[in-house]
Design brief:
By secondary structure, the protein is an all-alpha fold. Bound molecules: fe (ii) ion (2 copies).
């Protein structure tokens, strides 16, 4: 089976991602909330694997994968605390339903696509969904954290994602092997990756609109403080 699927990220979407990194790192408040958002998504991923683990409790890879995703969430939360503690209130990105549910939306699409191809017993369906969701997410995570790392390096921001990237690359290799074992068609894999690209593009647009709300709120707080000082 030819599995060399490479979906080249459009140059424009990488530029947009770089723009987001520039925007969020321009304010500590934004940067903290952005890291909290990524930490939340890693946590969502870990919780989804944890549910699957209950069905496959003897599977070492799933156990290990779950633990590493929980540790990614904690790692990112710790990075946010390195920048500082943000003012009280809910996270501006997590208020947006699409941003918060990006992973679940991908999961629903993949599960439906699998059902359309052939009926599978529920346990098998959960496992195949896990493989395809993880595959799409790991491909995304590697490109995302690499771009984030480059941005930090270029801008002297002392955040490193190397250990996290090593884990994600290891997960991708493992999942790739398991997908081959399951003989999942390349057409379906391609369809899932394309859909993830579409979701991610909307995700980035929503993140960008959230940053403008926060920039506006920050400048209102600044104006109010200036006024009170007069
Ligand atoms: Fe992760
Ligand atoms: Fe991962």
């Amino acid at each position: 089976m030819n599995f060399d699927i490479v979906i080249l990220e459009k140059k424009s979407s990488l530029q947009q991602l770089n723009k987001i990194f520039t925007l969020v790192s321009s304010s500590n408040n934004l940067h903290i909330q952005f890291l909290e958002l990524i930490s939340y998504l890693e946590l969502q991923g870990a919780k989804k694997i944890s549910k699957l683990r209950k069905k496959y409790n003897s599977n070492n890879f799933i156990n290990h994968h779950m633990k590493e995703e929980f540790s990614h969430s904690k790692f990112l939360k710790d990075l946010s605390l390195k920048i500082g503690v943000r003012p009280q209130g809910s996270n501006v990105f997590l208020k947006n339903g699409f941003v918060r549910n990006y992973l679940s939306l991908l999961e629903v699409f993949i599960c439906k696509s699998l059902k359309q191809i052939k009926p599978n017993p529920s346990q098998k369906l959960s496992y195949l969904t896990y493989l395809l969701v993880t595959y799409a997410i790991e491909v995304r995570a590697i490109s995302f954290y690499n771009t984030y790392s480059d941005h930090c390096l270029k801008n002297d921001i002392p955040l490193s994602f190397n250990s996290l990237l090593e884990d994600e690359e290891k997960h991708l290799t493992e999942i790739h092997k398991r997908i081959l074992d399951e003989n999942i068609s390349t057409d379906l894999i391609f369809k899932c990756l394309k859909h993830e690209q579409k979701l991610f593009s909307t995700f980035i647009n929503r993140v960008q609109s959230c940053t403008s709300i926060l920039h506006h709120e920050d400048s209102q707080i600044y104006k109010k403080t200036q006024f009170e000082l007069l």
